[in-house]
Structure formats: structure tokens, C-alpha cells
């Protein structure tokens, strides 16, 4: 009755992440470094992206 418990496969995922996910996660440290080095440019970029989204609605 409990022969399968606990399961022998302890992997948290069964498939490798997609290439886009891998590239996005690889770019995070560089993005954080650039955001820390140029905070004014980061704020301007975020403001521009949000304003662009707001005007497209």
C-alpha cells in the first residue's frame, strides 16, 4: 500500500528551463549592476516604460 511513499524522485522540476528563462536569469546580475551604477538612468528607463504602457491603453 505504501510502497511508493516517499517518492524516489526528489527533483523539483522535470524539464530544463526554456532558453528564454535561462537568458533572463543570466542577465539579472548585469542588470542589477547597471541599475546600481546608474540609478538616475534606471529610474528614467522605468518611468519611460511605465508611461509607454499607460499611453497604449
Structural class: mainly alpha
What is the end-to-end distance? 57 Å
Main sheet: strands, sense, barrel: none
Overall pLDDT confidence: 86
Total number of strands: 0
- The sequence of SSEs as H and E is HH
How much of the sequence lies in strands comes to under 5%
Helix content: 55-70%
Radius of gyration: 21 Å
Treating each run of at least 4 consecutive H or I residues as one helix, how many helices?
A: 2
What shape does the CA trace take?
Answer: elongated
Low-confidence stretches: none
Transmembrane segments: 23-51
Keywords: Membrane, Transmembrane, Transmembrane helix
Task: Describe the structure concisely for a colleague.
This protein has about 55 residues and is mainly α.
Keywords:
mainly alpha, 65% helix, 57 residues
Description:
The structure is a single chain. The protein is mostly helical and 57 residues long. It contains two helices and no strands. The radius of gyration is 21 Å and the shape is elongated. Keywords: Membrane, Transmembrane, Transmembrane helix.
Note the topology.
Layout: H1 19-37, H2 39-56
